Amino acid sequence: MMGNQIRRFFYSVCLLASAALNIFLVRNVYLGDEWKKQKLSNWAEEAAAEAEAVALISCSGHGRAYLDGAVVDGKPVCECNTCYGGPDCSLFSPDCAADALRGDPLFLEPFWMQHAASSAVVVAGWHRMSYTFSDDSYISQELETHIRRAHAVARNAITKGKYFIFGGGSTQLLAAAVYALSMNLSSTAKVVAAAPAYPLYKTQTDFFQNTRFEYDGDASLFKNSSDTTANLIEFVTSPNNPDGNLREAVLQGPKVRAIYDHVYYWPHFTAIPAPANEDVMIFTMSKFTGHAGSRLGWAFVKDEDVYQKMQSYIEAAEIGISREAQLRALKLMKAILQADGREIFEYAYKKMSYRWRKLSDILVLSERFSIQEIPPLFCNFFERVRGPSPAYAWLKCERENDTNCNQVLRAANIIGRAGSAFNVEDRYARLSLLKTDDDFNLLLLRLGKLISEDIYTI
Amino acid sequence: MMGNQIRRFFYSVCLLASAALNIFLVRNVYLGDEWKKQKLSNWAEEAAAEAEAVALISCSGHGRAYLDGAVVDGKPVCECNTCYGGPDCSLFSPDCAADALRGDPLFLEPFWMQHAASSAVVVAGWHRMSYTFSDDSYISQELETHIRRAHAVARNAITKGKYFIFGGGSTQLLAAAVYALSMNLSSTAKVVAAAPAYPLYKTQTDFFQNTRFEYDGDASLFKNSSDTTANLIEFVTSPNNPDGNLREAVLQGPKVRAIYDHVYYWPHFTAIPAPANEDVMIFTMSKFTGHAGSRLGWAFVKDEDVYQKMQSYIEAAEIGISREAQLRALKLMKAILQADGREIFEYAYKKMSYRWRKLSDILVLSERFSIQEIPPLFCNFFERVRGPSPAYAWLKCERENDTNCNQVLRAANIIGRAGSAFNVEDRYARLSLLKTDDDFNLLLLRLGKLISEDIYTI
């Protein structure tokens, strides 16, 4: 009896010892395997860990640390939103100006933070070192395909049967198009844009001016011109920067060529009445995914000759566009096109229309200021009538004496952009609605204060 | 006695069970912790796994798959080196031409594959979406600092006290410098470069020609010019493309300005007699780390006014340079600067001087062809006299009848670049030595065949 008991105990012990050993061995083998993987293929783990560590640096929701930020005590510092400071961005500067100057599309930053896993990409040390892709082009075919798909989801452009080209942001493609459209003409082309117009058209065209083209101001002034022999190149910005209006070319005729700047033609900012189908259409990551820093724009071009000339421009300027920017854009497109691909448009529209409503709610109280009216319109993407969600508020100072609206704003500690930059009177000013939540909230606060003081004063 | 034994067994069992349980618990807690990390911060793991999976795709050592390559059966296909094909790049095409046309710096690809872990970088979805860095510039200060450090290690440039600017490859900076140096002059500047000269100087200057500057050919023709009132801008390429010679400006005088194209001024390609210390010096990732696809060049500029104007050029052209390219370049610089930072220079010099020796060994047998002579020279980096390791062979066809050297090469199934592209006679041709081992080996094979046939024929 006792002998049996001992045997039972003995077996139990053996079993347990064995089980323990099993666990030990399994673990060991498992780790051993891991170690092999480490040597063979885990070269990207360190980069992943490094990126994750930086993402965990807390900046109080008013900033973020970047992998390539300034390093203090061995780790990158927080880079704070405007008006926030301190090591963790927790200090608000009450007297700081509400900066609504630039069209920096940071309103989409939270979207990408929420889609961290699907949008992250590893650049290997040997990734695409060559000048060209394997088809001798400077363009990732995969990326082109995904961008065309994104347009198909947004229903904002007919891309079929059109050539595709990348540029350093839409900026470089605007210049490339002017060069291409002004080649082999009998006279210097006049480059024009209906006022109010995006200031870069003038500054860029002036900077690169040569005997083939020159900037000549407001397109409307050429509308009823008796001179039908002049070569004209019209920038058509639709929706327009600054006022968000959908536009058609002002000028028509055999000697008129149009460059459609459609960078804001996304459900984020406007109803899409119909897919755009122009001869030269320009888009950019900046106003679609919010990645202004990528400097990656694209154009759809109907005419092969114009396309070839634009390509020659990019090649003469810098051979091709960054492979890193293209790889990253592809990952962003893949993240966007997950499921039915509608999420980013719904997110962006919701956010921008919210901002517009908040702004309108404040401005409706004021007789001193007005903003542009954007009528509700049927949207091809949402398949319903939808309200406004523009990228900018185009503010007008209504008082006789307020001839410089931007100065009025500046006195209230708000930084806008003066109407004269857009080739109209300074009674107008542009306010960017594209920036961070912090920027927008401060803008609302300052505008609210300005308007309530006005009402109180009256 | 038996009671004691039972107790002993009992305790042993408890101990073992406990130990087993401990192991179990430790593992469980550990995994539990991992799981938490997964949710909080393991967003980059998927990207790492994806990149590693692509790197494991076997292309027989004659190609590689890229993350953004064409996808077949759910994974990116192999992109094969020239003359290799098939799904795994194992098929050699015996009749395929040896392509030595372009300066594609793929000779450094194996270096980066060997440094996979230290050179990989994760781009987060929200990485630097803004147009600007937090100091309102378009330039990563961290990257600038690391690039200056790399120059200090290479001892190839005095960067202190000089302004720094990025461009889309050296290409864009060449144009930016021409624009900057030709502003506010009394007459159209003549842009020149001593022959043989890099063809892009002419094609680019012609493309962007305006009333302020025009390309005017060989700098040497202006050397003893009686017209001392002409504004001249000289491209000085040192070491020179195509012939690898170290150069000084041909032209001197109060109306002459020089743009030093120092993209090959690294220990890879030349002895460094002394650190360069010119007013306008241009470098690029392409010929330093081998990343031509990044389109990231930089300039050091002594004069603030010239620097400002070059900056205006970049801003008018495309606002700034890709943040992805800058982030990746920073990671590459960090990898390079590990330990004493000398490894890449030693690797590159060893490889390029090996190629030069192999080529010389073949050409020494020939009376039909000659290549440039590059004398041994003391090198500031290696601190000793060192032999040649140029980026290109500058081939001369010595026979009276061989007036078109490139045609002679073409007949032997070798693709070079004709001398006339470099503004000299077609008796010369350039062969790129910068490409993959496969490219170089095929070039050697074809040249060897051509030369041995000549000898046999004679």
From TrEMBL, chains A, B:
Domain (Alliinase EGF-like) ranges: 42-96
Family matches, as Pfam families: Alliinase_C, EGF_alliinase
One of the protein's GO biological processes: amino acid metabolic process
Xref: SUPFAM superfamilies: PLP-dependent transferases (SSF53383)
GO molecular function: carbon-sulfur lyase activity; transaminase activity
UniProt superkingdom: Eukaryota
InterPro entries in UniProt: Alliinase_C, Alliinase_N_sf, EGF_alliinase, Ethylene_sulfur-biosynth, PyrdxlP-dep_Trfase, PyrdxlP-dep_Trfase_major, PyrdxlP-dep_Trfase_small
Keywords per UniProt: Aminotransferase, Pyridoxal phosphate, Transferase
Every Alliinase C-terminal domain range: 99-450
Entry-linked PANTHER family: BIFUNCTIONAL ASPARTATE AMINOTRANSFERASE AND GLUTAMATE/ASPARTATE-PREPHENATE AMINOTRANSFERASE-RELATED (PTHR43795), TRYPTOPHAN AMINOTRANSFERASE-RELATED PROTEIN 3 (PTHR43795:SF20)
Homology family: Belongs to the alliinase family.
Protein name as catalogued: Tryptophan aminotransferase-related protein 4-like
Lineage per the UniProt record: Eukaryota, Viridiplantae, Streptophyta, Embryophyta, Tracheophyta
Gene: LOC105178758
